[in-house]
Every structure is written in structure tokens, then in C-alpha cells.
Amino acid sequence: MTSATPPTGRGPLARREARLAWGLLLPTILSVSLVVILPLLSIFWISFKPIGLADLRPPAPVVRESLRGRPEAAGDEGEVQYRLRNSSQDKPILGVTLSDTLPEGLTVTGDIDPRCTLDDRALFCDFGDLEGGQRETIEIPVIAEAAYFDSGADVERTVPEITGRADNILTNSEFTLDNFARIFRGDEFFTVLWATIFYTVFGTVGALLVGLFAAMLLNKEFKGQGILRGLYLFPYVAPVIAVAFTWVTLFDPFSGSANALLVQMGVVNSPINFFGQRPLALIMVTVFEIWRYFPLSFLFILARMQSIDHDMYEAADMDGASPFQQFWYLSMPQLLGILSVLFLLRFIWTFNKFDDIFLLTGGNAGTRTLTVNVYEQAFAVSNIGAGAAVAVVIFCVLLVFSIFFLKYVSREEGL
């Protein structure tokens, strides 16, 4: 008598279901790869390249053809001119050639450049190698005949065929660590990192605390509650350019209302440059971050508060619990999950924030964060490689933070 043993492994049905599941997920995986993974890989690739802003377009020979002299009648003399240049100022282009067909009715009357040959109307020129920034000009004397005007031909309408080989720094095998050495050199990076951490931590925690306080205020039924909730959303839904300009104008040291009020009240003796002096500028942009983004926390926290069973509060009230005890021992355990999610999201978003700081201070007066540093390295200094290197540092910092947070801090709400 043999004992029955349960089957091991997956059966045919399970394998078909797995193939079907992967087939359904394949479009999503491909979309995520194209939208997220490929740009991320390109940033890592560029961060190890000695590449500037001008190197994004590979070197190429550029030619412009024109008919000088502008002949207007048969027998008029003119000159077909080809102006050739290397689009790069420092990279050579090898084996540059030019091919073109002269319009019917233009007769060559003189010698042409020795680098060119003319077979009937077919022109071919071999320029060899063009060094960085090199320019060449080919001039061919011609006479316009009646056939030229009868055909309606125009030299400038035709596009000469030009060839050449150039090394593309984006795709070659040249790599360097100079971009990372540049951003880590000296104390500048750690100053920028400190400003970023200060802005991110206090901006995130402040937005959560203000959102929590606002949710507690509006978690009651009273007349005008809906209107007040809508007003609380104004900082978040208002255009960032409009609110940033308003803040800069409001706190302007010469014409701002805030300074005028403080001086008239005797709080200060002279106007304060809120967005132009250290460390006040960093504090102000952090306060702006808190004010602008607390409505998001307010919405999520209020929605979670309204889903809590009120019977617990009634029982705690009958047992003599104070409002603070009810909040700390009843509300907070229920809110830890949503607070964890909000802290993670707000930390990542604030760490990546660029537009608010750039509109308020331009990164000056100690408010230069890592994201502003990406812009300055890539576009102000025209060093795309260094800008990509800073972006890689941002990615690594956020990746380490996210792993640490998800593994050791938050254990609720599916995190």
C-alpha cells in the first residue's frame, strides 16, 4: 500500500496563469522602463563623461550655399559660394567631402579650388580633416545663361551633400571621475548639502505639523467649514510663480509691506533683507515651503481623522481623559500610518524641489541646494557632466533614505 504524496512545483494551470500575468504586466513594465529607467541610466552615463553643454550635439560639418552677384539677366556674371565650417570649436571632423550639382544654365568661367573637381555640372570637393572651429570658403565664378532664368532654378534652394566623421563624446569609451571630483572638491559641496538637509527636514516636518494642526481645527462641524477648507488649499493650488513673486514683493527691503509694518511698529530700526542675507534667506524659503505645501498634509490627515471611530473618544471622555490624552493615545496611533507615508513623499519631493528656491532667491544668500547646483553646473557653467554627477548624488541620497525609512522606521499602512 503506497501513501499519497502532495504534488510539488507548479502545475500547467499555474504556469499558464503566470505567463498571462507577465503578459498583462509587460506593457506597464516597458512604459516604466522607457519613462523612468532609461533616463536614469542616461544620467548615470553622462555623469562619467567629460561633456559640456555644447557637446550635446555631436560635431558636424555645416555648409551654406549662395549665389553672389545676383545675376538678373542672361550674360550676367556671378559667383557660386560654399561656406563650410566645423560646428565644434575643439573637436575635429575627419574626411569631410562636399557634393553638389550646379543648376542648369550656370556656366563656370574660371578656375575652381584645387580641392574640387567638376564633371559637367557635378561638383565634388575633398576638404580632408576640419579642425575645431575651422572655416573654409569655395568660390566658383559663373555666367548665368538664359536657361538658368527659364528653369526658375535657385542655388540657395538646393542642399549640398556633405559627409564627415567625428568622435561623439556621448557614445565613445572615454570616461572620467573629474565630474565627481569637481563637485566634492572643497567645502562648497558640504555647504550645499547642509542647506539641502536643513531645507528638506524642517520643510517636511513643518508642513506635516501645520497640516496636522489645521486638520485638528477643521475636524469639527461648524458653519462655513467648507469655505474655510477651500481657503486652506489656496497655497497649494495657486501658481508657484504668482505666490513666489508675491512673497518677494511683500518682504522686499525697500517697498515691501512687511518691512514697512515692522519699522512703523518699532520692532526693527531698519528694513530687513529677508531673502538676501544669511541665514535668514534659508529660513524664509523653508517657511515658504511649509506654507505652500501644508495643505497636502492637511487633506490626507483630515481624511484619516474622519475615518476614526468616534465611539473611542466618547468612551475616553467618560473615563475622564483630557483632550491631549485623547489625541496622543487615540488619534496619534491611528495617524502614524498616513504620517509615515506623507513624511516619505514630502521628504523626497522637498529634497528635489527647485522652482520655489530659484524663484525666491535664485540660490543666493546660502539657499543653494543640490537641485539648484544641478542647474548651475549644467547650464550656468555649461558642464552637463558635473550637473549629471550632482543628480546622481541626489538619487543615491534619496535611495539610501528610502531604504532606511521603509526598512527601519515605517511598518504600517503597507510600507
List the helices and strands and how they pair.
Elements: H1 12-47, E1 61-68, E2 77-86, E3 93-101, E4 106-108, E5 116-119, E6 122-130, E7 135-144, H2 146-151, E8 161-166, H3 178-184, H4 188-217, H5 225-232, H6 234-237, H7 240-250, H8 257-264, H9 280-305, H10 311-318, H11 323-351, H12 355-360, H13 370-380, H14 384-409
Antiparallel strand pairs: 1-2, 2-7, 3-6, 3-8, 4-7, 5-6
Helix pairs in contact: 1-14, 3-14, 4-9, 4-11, 9-11, 11-14, 13-14
Describe the structure.
This protein has 415 residues and is α+β, with helices and mostly antiparallel strands. It folds into 2 domains: 61-166, Immunoglobulin-like, CATH 2.60.40.290; 178-412, MetI-like fold. It is 52% helix and 14% strand. The strands form 2 sheets. A 4-stranded antiparallel beta sheet has the order 1-2-7-4. It has a 4-stranded antiparallel beta sheet with strand order 5-6-3-8, with no helix packed on it. Strand 5 (116-119) and strand 6 (122-130) form a beta hairpin. Helix 4 packs parallel to helix 9 (280-305). The longest helix is centred in the N-terminal third of the chain and has 36 residues, at 12-47. The chain is elongated and about 110 Å long.
